[in-house]
């Protein structure tokens, strides 16, 4: 057997093995199963501690942008006209939110943590100085007092109204953005504090929320089931709430929005428990997006999350008391926020009933600026980019005994909205791209084997064809004349036999005589 034939046979054998093994691995999805098993598998406490280091101190910077609705016609509104507002902001703060007191429980299947948040003003990302800029907004402490007295007698309300007037308290107040946000000593609350010390004499939308946490959480680590990774087991010792009017509405579902299980698909609903909203919400797949070269799935709350119970009966449980429901796009959370009748919505009443948008001039809801969304890398479940947007409103209506309200039209009045944003940093994005590249290469390794088999098959065909060509050429050479002399006419008689022809191995010689 020649060397060329050996090469052809060897190439054929290797090609066949590569194709058979590669196709078998592709069909069996061995490497994909191996990676998925690695993502799902149970891990030791040491590995879990290392994994949760990034969870304890998330690298992406988080920013809180505060926008306020400055009232431009307070007197006209009190006289019965439609309110008019102008958006001011943003006033941006860097949010630091490390997880502290992290403790693993029940053999590493659960983990306890608190999440204190600290805010630091970032002037270069802000539109003004919060300690200088003044905003005209609703006097929420006054509204809280009126709302608290609404169930009392008319005479008591009238007496309190006269006392409030003597203090110079109005339905609208002028304060700096910093005071409205982080707190000021309110004259009405100060008087109440003198009679009821448990009532704080300071008021601010973020009063006592800088450096504090939203409660004590216990999370599942996903050791027993990877789908439970990051899900909340208890919040402040509770597995369900008691504020709402149905068991479904009181459920604490999903994660806190910081982590999700790996291997996310487009068809599932993701649940997040929002402590500031006192409820869980779900997010649905919207589209594929690219964030810093990383492919991600975008999830956002569908319109049915805050839909009216008339259109979505599952939301009836958020009507408190039962049957006392608002329209689409708004949620009354005063049941878990004692005091004023507070209502939350998306900014500018995005996805809300048009009657709320039309009740106030100066609102312009749009998807780009006011939608809440979450971009997740589906293989790892890691949030790549997030925008959480929520608006704080208060219900203003006529209350007998308080003459200041006798002409106003009942309105869900916008106060401010927040835009909480986080995007993966460049260093983490580079690490994520490298990780995904490795995962892709390993997952597609069987295809590489098949590809190599196909290449060898092409080489085998080429070698075989060239070998056949050379063999054919050799056979043709065996029957070509070697004499260079031209053919001469024969001088022998026709009866004389012709000489032997001039062929290889048959040299022209005279016939031997016997």
UniProtKB/TrEMBL annotation:
Q: Which family does it belong to?
A: Belongs to the CD36 family.
Instruction: Name the InterPro entries on file.
Output: CD36_fam, LimpII
Which GO terms fall under molecular function for this chain's record?
A: scavenger receptor activity
Give the organism, scientific name.
Parambassis ranga
Q: Where are the transmembrane segments?
A: 7-31, 435-464
Q: Which GO terms describe its biological process?
A: protein targeting to lysosome; receptor-mediated endocytosis
Q: Does the keyword Transmembrane apply?
A: yes
Q: Main location per UniProt?
A: membrane
The annotated region (Disordered) lies at 474-514
Protein name as catalogued = Lysosome membrane protein 2a isoform X2
Localisation per UniProt entry: Membrane
């Amino acid at each position: 057997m020649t060397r060329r034939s050996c090469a052809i046979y060897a190439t054929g054998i290797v090609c066949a093995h590569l194709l058979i093994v590669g196709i078998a691995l592709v069909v069996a999805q061995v490497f994909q199963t191996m990676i998925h098993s690695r993502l799902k598998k149970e891990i030791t406490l040491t590995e879990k501690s290392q994994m949760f280091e990034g969870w304890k101190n998330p690298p992406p910077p988080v920013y809180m942008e505060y926008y306020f609705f400055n009232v431009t016609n307070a007197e006209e509104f009190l006289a019965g006209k439609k309110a008019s507002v102008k958006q001011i902001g943003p006033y941006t703060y860097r949010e630091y939110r490390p997880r502290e007191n992290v403790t693993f429980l029940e053999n590493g299947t659960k983990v306890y943590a608190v999440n204190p948040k600290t805010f630091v003003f970032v002037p270069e990302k802000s539109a003004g100085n919060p300690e200088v800029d003044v905003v005209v907004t609703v006097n929420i402490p006054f509204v809280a007092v009126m709302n608290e007295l609404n169930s009392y007698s008319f005479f008591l309300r009238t007496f309190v109204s006269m006392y409030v007037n003597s203090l110079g308290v109005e339905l609208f107040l002028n304060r700096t953005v910093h005071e409205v946000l982080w707190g000021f000593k309110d004259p009405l609350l100060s008087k109440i504090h003198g009679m009821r010390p448990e009532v704080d004499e300071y008021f601010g939308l973020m009063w006592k929320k800088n450096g504090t946490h939203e409660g004590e959480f216990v999370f599942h680590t996903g050791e027993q089931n990877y789908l439970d990774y990051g899900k909340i087991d208890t919040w402040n010792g509770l597995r369900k709430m008691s504020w709402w009017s149905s068991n479904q509405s009181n459920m604490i579902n999903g994660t806190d929005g910081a982590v999700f299980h790996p291997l996310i698909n487009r068809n599932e609903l993701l649940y997040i428990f929002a402590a500031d909203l006192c409820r869980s919400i779900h997010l649905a797949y919207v589209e594929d997006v690219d964030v810093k070269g990383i492919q991600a799935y975008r999830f956002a709350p569908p319109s049915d999350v805050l839909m009216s119970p008339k259109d979505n009966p599952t939301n009836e449980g958020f009507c408190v008391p039962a049957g006392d429901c608002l329209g689409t796009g708004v949620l009354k959370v005063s049941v878990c926020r004692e005091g004023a009748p507070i209502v939350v919505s998306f900014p500018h009443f995005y996805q809300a009933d048009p009657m709320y948008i039309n009740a106030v001039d100066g609102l312009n809801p749009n998807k780009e600026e006011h939608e809440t969304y979450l971009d997740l890398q589906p293989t790892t479940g890691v949030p790549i980019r997030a925008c959480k947007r929520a608006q704080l409103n208060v219900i203003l209506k006529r209350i007998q005994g308080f003459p200041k309200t006798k002409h106003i039209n009942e309105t869900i009045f916008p106060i401010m909205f927040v835009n909480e944003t986080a995007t993966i940093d460049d260093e983490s994005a580079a690490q994520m791209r490298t990780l995904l590249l490795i995962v892709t290469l390993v997952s597609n390794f069987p295809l590489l084997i098949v590809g190599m088999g196909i290449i060898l098959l092409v080489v085998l065909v080429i070698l075989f064809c060239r070998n056949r060509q050379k063999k054919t050429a050799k056979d043709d050479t065996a029957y070509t004349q070697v004499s260079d002399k031209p053919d001469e006419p024969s001088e022998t008689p026709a009866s004389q036999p012709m000489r032997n022809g001039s062929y290889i191995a048959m040299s022209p010689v005279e016939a031997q005589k016997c």
